[in-house]
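Recall that a protein's primary structure is simply its ordered list of amino acids. Everything else, from secondary elements to tertiary packing, is in principle encoded there. The following example makes that idea concrete.
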Amino acid sequence: MPVAERRKFFAILSENAFRGEDLSHEELFGHLAGDAFSAQQAAEYLEVSMSTLRRFVASGRLKPGSTLGRNQMFAVPALKVFKKALKTAKG
């Protein structure tokens, strides 16, 4: 598909994707409240590298909610609070 047509297609798609729906954060992501993320998912959610996530854990700034074998799982509500604190610190 030529670039001009592709741009037009995605413009139309984006205009119609959520037409008439103004969903709150809770409505979109509320189902994740009780879930846990793997270390990789947590790093992606926090927008940091895996090595940075591991430093946060090693320093005690972030604690995994549970450990399954060698896999650390991170509670979504705790990650949300931590991400907000990171953004506030960066200012």
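Residues 3-17 form the longest helix (15 residues). The domain at 35-91 is CATH 1.10.1660.10 (Multidrug-efflux Transporter Regulator; Chain: A; Domain 2).
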